[in-house]
Each structure stands twice: as C-alpha cells, then as structure tokens.
C-alpha cells in the first residue's frame, strides 16, 4: 500500500479533511498520520480507507469515521502519562492512535476474532503498550482501575455506571449515548471531586454496546 505513487497525496488529503472537520490538535493529527487506516480496513472496502466514512469490519461491526476518531481523541485530552481504557476494540484503529499518545491502553471487545486481528496489527505497528481483552466491556476493568481516561466506541443508553466508577478524579470519559438505532449524542464526562460534569459534544452514530460475549 505504502509503495503506491499516489499514497502521499491520499494521505495529505486525508489529513486536510480531518483539519477541515475540526481535528486541530497537532498530537492527534501526528498520530493519525503515523497509523495508516488502510491497514485496518481489509477486503472490499480497502480502497475507501482514506475517505471520511465509517466502513464495515468483521462480526457485523464498523470502523468509525476518521474525523469522529480524531474529534473523540481530541476531546479525551490524553496525556503521555495516562492509563486509558477503551471499550470496543473493533478494528484496533482507535486503540492504535491512543497508544501513541499515552502510557498504556487497555482495550476490550466482546468479539474474540476482532481482538486477535487487532493484536496482529498492534504487532505490525510495533505498539507494545496495548493490553487487549475479550470481555463484556460494560463492566470495565476493575483490576486496573482507576483510569485517567476512558473512551467508549459503542453506544449505550446512559454512561455505564461501572465505567463512571472506574474513572479517576480529574479523569475524562468520552461516550456516545442514546438509542442504538437512532442518532446518538457524544458526551464528555469529567469526574470532579464531588460528582460528574457532562458536556454534549456532537451527534454521532455508533453500533450498540451489547451485553455478554460475541459468538466469534
Ligand atoms: N473503536 C473501533 C470501532 C468500534 S465498533 C475501531 O477503531 O475500529 C464497536 C465495537 O464495540 C465492536 O467491535 C463491538 O464488538 C464492540 N462492543 C459492543 N458491545 C461491547 C461490550 N459490551 N463490550 C466490549 N465490546 C463491545
């Protein structure tokens, strides 16, 4: 893929589109420049990897739209020393970007197949600070809590209680909330000393957060 003559130009257009849609944090843009989305989109849709559109991945799931990945990453305000939890590994694209920005990423998916394919890509990109788990992520990961940052990339009706409980004081969580088959609202939750502060960021559309483990 990288040897194609038009690769550099496609990448430039990809980054330009991200900036136009409001992804302005230079660290986020740099991470998105380094992690080639083409590697995370296989088969039929590979050609469209640099378009600003969500695309199908195995197990009936989707890799998010790049501008949404950029805006969510930016909203999470990740620092280099942070311990980050991601719910919904999917293709692994979002986790790979987070891994360049923080100390360690724990990423959970309910589909074993997605997790093992993502692990192969993390090795390909030499990302050694990602821990993967096959589990129902709505319970979070109590044994590694509390987290500085939590990103949920599947829609819940409300921010899951266990995840709120596993956020550090001063920590931030970004999560799409709303009915699974409708437009949802992306919200940012900040844990304060005495409670939570909620910010609505934008409308989004994510696959639902589903209970239990997947079949594959
Ligand atoms: N972040 C991904 C896109 C996620 S798509 C990427 O960068 O490609 C949403 C993912 O959430 C799917 O892979 C789905 O299997 C997963 N998911 C849904 N409910 C879940 C749950 N309860 N626990 C863990 N993963 C879940």
UniProtKB/TrEMBL annotation:
<feature type="active site">
    <location>
        <position position="64"/>
    </location>
</feature>
<dbReference type="GO" id="GO:0032259">
    <property type="term" value="P:methylation"/>
</dbReference>
<comment type="similarity">
    <text>Belongs to the methyltransferase superfamily. L-isoaspartyl/D-aspartyl protein methyltransferase family.</text>
</comment>
<dbReference type="InterPro" id="IPR000682">
    <property type="entry name" value="PCMT"/>
</dbReference>
<protein>
    <recommendedName>
        <fullName>Protein-L-isoaspartate O-methyltransferase</fullName>
        <ecNumber>2.1.1.77</ecNumber>
    </recommendedName>
</protein>
<keyword id="KW-0808">Transferase</keyword>
<keyword id="KW-0963">Cytoplasm</keyword>
<keyword id="KW-0949">S-adenosyl-L-methionine</keyword>
<dbReference type="GO" id="GO:0005737">
    <property type="term" value="C:cytoplasm"/>
</dbReference>
<comment type="function">
    <text>Catalyzes the methyl esterification of L-isoaspartyl residues in peptides and proteins that result from spontaneous decomposition of normal L-aspartyl and L-asparaginyl residues. It plays a role in the repair and/or degradation of damaged proteins.</text>
</comment>
<dbReference type="GO" id="GO:0030091">
    <property type="term" value="P:protein repair"/>
</dbReference>
<keyword id="KW-0489">Methyltransferase</keyword>
<dbReference type="Pfam" id="PF01135">
    <property type="entry name" value="PCMT"/>
</dbReference>
<dbReference type="GO" id="GO:0004719">
    <property type="term" value="F:protein-L-isoaspartate (D-aspartate) O-methyltransferase activity"/>
</dbReference>
<dbReference type="InterPro" id="IPR029063">
    <property type="entry name" value="SAM-dependent_MTases_sf"/>
</dbReference>
């Amino acid at each position: 893929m990288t040897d194609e003559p038009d690769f550099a130009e496609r990448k430039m257009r990809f980054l330009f589109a991200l900036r136009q849609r409001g992804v302005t944090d230079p660290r986020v843009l740099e991470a998105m420049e380094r992690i080639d989305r083409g590697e995370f989109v296989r088969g039929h849709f590979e050609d469209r990897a640099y378009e600003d559109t969500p695309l199908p991945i195995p197990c009936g799931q989707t890799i998010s739209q790049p501008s949404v990945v950029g805006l969510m990453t930016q909203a999470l305000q990740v620092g280099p020393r942070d311990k980050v939890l991601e719910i919904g590994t999917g293709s692994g694209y979002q986790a790979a970007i987070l891994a360049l920005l923080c100390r360690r990423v724990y990423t959970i998916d309910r589909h074993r197949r997605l997790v093992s394919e993502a692990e192969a890509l993390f090795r390909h990109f030499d990302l050694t600070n990602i821990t993967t788990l096959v589990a129902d992520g709505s319970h979070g990961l109590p044994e590694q809590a509390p987290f500085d940052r939590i990103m949920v990339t599947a829609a819940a009706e409300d921010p899951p209680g266990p995840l709120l409980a596993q956020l550090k004081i001063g920590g931030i969580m970004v999560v799409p909330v709303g009915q699974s088959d409708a437009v949802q609202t992306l919200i940012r939750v900040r844990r304060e000393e005495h409670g939570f502060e909620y910010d609505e960021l934008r409308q989004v559309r994510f696959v639902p957060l589903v209970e239990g483990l997947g079949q594959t």
